Amino acid sequence: MMKKTLILLLATVGLMTSCGNKNANKEAQAAEETPAVNEAFYAHTVKDMMGQDISLESYKGLVVLVVNTATRCGFTPQYTELENLYADYSAKGFTVLDFPCNQFGQQAPGTEAEIHEFCTANYDIKFPQFAKIEVNGENASPLFTYLKEQKGFEGFDADNQLTPRLEEMFDKMNPGWRETSDIKWNFTKFLIDRNGNVIARFEPTHDMKDVEEQIKKLL
Fold first, then answer.
1. Where are the domains of the chain?
2. Per residue in 80-115, is it b (16+ CB within 10 Å) or e — as a string?
3. Architecture of domain 39-218
4. By CB atoms within 10 Å of each CB, which of 173, 182, 184, 216 scores lowest?
5. Torsion of CA 84, 62, 133, 171, to 10 degrees
């Protein structure tokens, strides 16, 4: 009787050990399949239009499109497309972060309040807008410095009718402009996935339909 009890006890222990190993293996596999979060993007703090500090931690878990904007630029009508993207996909975990910048042709004049009033009056935007920044040079926003490090310049869209004009202008100003990661003009965009990884950089000449398709893949 004692021998049978011992055998039964050993079998029970073996079964428990086996189940424990299976559970541990499942937990390890789940951990491996869960993408690691890139904290570098979320470590940045920016100022909103009221001058208050905003941690990008607030946007963790969302697909984010960061863009430097201007209110008097040939690309300013892209505000409509950006707002459409926000309206269509914000419920699915997408947002646009708008950073006005006056470095390119001084095409973002005025105060933050004036810029916000212009954007809401003319484009009815509802996505977050932030304080004016610089994106190149010694006073460049650390956020944009980081984004440029992650995704350099790969050229303007050859199919856009404004590309020849931009290239001609830059060739006269700085023949080596193609070799730097600097932001070239207003409405340059960076796409960040839900884990903080910088997935793509879009120049202002890039087809917004393609931008939308790449956003959809991340949602």
1. 1-34, 39-218
2. eebbebbeebeeeebbbbbbbbbbbeebbeeebeeb
3. 3-Layer(aba) Sandwich (3.40)
4. 173
5. -70
Tokens 């905003």 label which residue? 54
Quick check: is 19 catalytic? no
pTM for this one? 0.84
User: Of 173, 167, 143, nearest to 47 (Cα)?
Assistant: 143
Residue indicated by tokens 């944009």: 144
Residues of the chain by 3-state class (helix, strand, coil), percent to 5: 45, 15, 40
The pLDDT tens digits of the residues spanning 107-138 come to 999 999 999 999 999 999 999 999 999 999 99
Query: pLDDT tens digit string along 161-212?
Result: 999 999 999 999 888 999 999 999 999 999 999 999 999 999 999 999 999 9
Question: Is 103 in contact with 134 (CB distance < 8 Å)?
Answer: yes
Q: Return the bridge partners of 54, or none.
A: 46
Give the C-alpha separation, 209 to 190, whole Å: 15
Please report which residue ranges of the chain form alpha helices under DSSP H.
Answer: 2-33, 39-42, 78-89, 112-123, 142-150, 163-173, 208-218
Between the CA of residue 12 and those of 9, 19, 20, 185, 208, what are the distances in Å? 5, 11, 12, 70, 62
